[in-house]
């Protein structure tokens, strides 16, 4: 019987010489290690890992999706790369799946922009681990097969009925020749191989067959946004988050609020974090205000749950964090939003498209032609006295919550990184407080008025942290024991 590798406990912090990586899958970590071993830098290794994730985790991410990352240079400058896309210029309606849910895929363009700033290696070399894995057959994981079964009707309805994945079984080795060809063309011809020509036409045809209005002009006019991050300082550290359209500013709000409350008892830290994140999510539709939101006060009663209600429930996304020997640190997330995104399949090129238009909500995050919706993707850089640390986690709206728990453990509780990543977590979701079964404060949280519901230790809703950075001049990485997260060093 094939074991589902979601649950062996605490992973150590690994210290490398040439670099370190933490990624959502062992194959992705291996790809980053390969590029680092060839002399590549953190950005090149990050892209190699993301490309492999597009092969092994098409339910979570892929060429039809998006990428956000923070890249911190050895000298201290950090750039925020926004690899998300806009709604079609002829937008008529939005939905949560099908063609009307698709925004312009941004990941491939973001790769090109990141390499224009930091790359030395040819794109084709960087993509070789992913191309090789797609051609030589990847193992189909139990978690991927569960996602296929859960989303089968959506996939069949949106053009994926003949996709080999739908007839695969867990443990099977499956080639993806169309995807390998697509990656190979991107590597050899550059970003135009995706956003124009036959690939772009295939994307547009697939979207329009299934009720969307994306057209060739939308793809050809797409641009990656490179900007400065939003930063806050506290307790001798600095937190750097993605600016809008990422909702990373909500994490900055909650973190700032945590450090404005003085002398929080140790057994109230989780409660304070829950209250702060729930309070910050009241401003989710206003994320476009960016730094202005840091002026909003977040009210917290340390003795009673306000039960404001947690954010929405989404699960997938995949993280990659890399540090190289020169001190560059990259923290990133890639995603198609829901499982398999829109479920619109592009058969000629082997990938599904995102459903990020489903992220539009109420004004000012309402849908409009050419507009980008707010994104859940929120990778961070935490600058510590020992060096910068790149952190990310899947879990959509749970990202802010999981990362706040990591920040709390590293700063207020002064715990080591491995312990913080390992320990049980909570997640506020849809009016309930989900708490991993072995969490030592779950009874206290219940007494404070939280609607506590136990979830198994290692439940997907607890996230899966990827962490890599520098510690006293050496590259380090640690992987969560949850999901299939893995770390490696060179």
Give the gist of this structure:
With 490 residues, the protein is of the alpha+beta class.
The strand line-up of the biggest sheet is 1-20-19-15-14-9-8
Number of domains: 2
Mean pLDDT: 95
Helical percentage: 25-40%
Radius of gyration: 21 Å
* Approximate shape: globular
Structural category: alpha+beta
Oligomer: single chain
> DSSP helix count?
14
Number of strands: 21
β-strand amount: 15-25%
Task: Report on the biggest sheet.
Answer: 7 strands, antiparallel
Q: Uncertain spans, ≥5 residues at pLDDT below 50? A: 1-7
Distance between the termini: 33 Å
List the helices and strands and how they pair.
Layout (H helix, E strand, L loop, with lengths): L13 E2 L3 E5 L2 H12 L4 H15 L9 E7 L5 E6 L23 H12 L4 H14 L1 E2 L2 H16 L15 E2 L2 H13 L2 H4 L1 H13 L6 H5 L4 E3 L2 E5 L2 E5 L6 H13 L8 H12 L37 E7 L4 E7 L9 E2 L4 E2 L27 E5 L2 E6 L5 H14 L5 H6 L3 E4 L2 E5 L5 H6 L4 E4 L10 E6 L2 E6 L6 E4 L1
Parallel strand pairs: 17-18
Antiparallel strand pairs: 1-20, 2-10, 2-21, 3-4, 3-11, 4-7, 5-6, 8-9, 9-14, 10-11, 12-13, 14-15, 15-19, 16-17, 19-20
